[in-house]
Amino acid sequence: MLSIAIYGEQVLNQVAQPVTVFDSELQTLADEMLNTMQQAHGVGIAAPQVHRSLQMFIMASNPNSRYPDAPLMAPQVVINPQILQTSEAQVWGEEGCLSLPQERCQVARFESIEVRYQDLSGEWCQEWLSGFVARIFQHEFDHLQGITLRERTAKST
Ligand SMILES: [Zn+2]
């Protein structure tokens, strides 16, 4: 299990660098991030949270002790993500973060978003996400801009 950066560590407030090399080292990092996320009962984890300032995260919604109502999906590695367009509607929901243990906050997120990102082989994928999965994407995307729940909730209030 990789060590998880806790709020206050500088890596969490840096803009992450684009991934340019899609090799076995990147695959290994993705595997280690997935293991770390699962052991911590998270539904997503971003590379800066394991002290790697790279534009990469994993979203893996599944019902667990932290999020009993989460939908089940296969873990998806998301690299160099972009949000192309968003719904007008935003929805409030409770979020936690592996880097802010013990904290849960109400955060407004777009109900649906159109996104574009690369997978581990460097292939571009484009799709619409909605609901809880869109929420995870927006939370992890924030991490790549150096924004945690602390900054997000400070902004929206
Ligand atoms: Zn987080």
Count of separate DSSP helical elements: 3
The CATH topology: Peptide Deformylase
CATH homologous superfamily descriptor: Peptide deformylase
Gross geometry: globular
Please tell me the total number of domains: 1
Instruction: Write down the Rg.
Output: 14 Å
Tell me what portion of residues adopts beta-strand conformation: 25-35%
Strand order across the largest sheet: 1-2-3-6-7
The class by helix and strand makeup works out as alpha+beta
CATH architecture: Alpha-Beta Complex
Report the helical percentage.
10-25%
Q: What would the average pLDDT be, to the nearest integer? A: 94
Low-confidence segments, ≥5 residues, pLDDT <50?
A: none
* Small-molecule binders: zinc ion
CATH class: Alpha Beta
Secondary-structure element pattern, one letter each: HEEEEEEEHH
Q: What distance lies between the first and last C-alpha atoms, to the nearest angstrom?
A: 35 Å
Largest sheet: 5 strands, antiparallel
Number of strands: 7
What can you see in these coordinates?
- The protein is α+β, with helices and mostly antiparallel strands.
- It has one domain (about 10-155): Alpha-Beta Complex (Peptide Deformylase), CATH 3.90.45.
- Helix content is about 25%, strand content about 30%.
- The chain contains 3 helices and 7 strands.
- The chain has helices at about 25-40, 130-145, 150-155, and strands spanning about 45, 55-60, 75-85, 90-95, 105-110, 110-120, 125-130.
- A hairpin with a 5-residue loop joins strand 6 (about 110-120) and strand 7 (about 125-130).
- The longest helix is centred in the first third of the chain and has 16 residues, at about 25-40.
- Belongs to the polypeptide deformylase family.
- InterPro entries: Peptide_deformylase (IPR023635), Peptide_deformylase_sf (IPR036821).
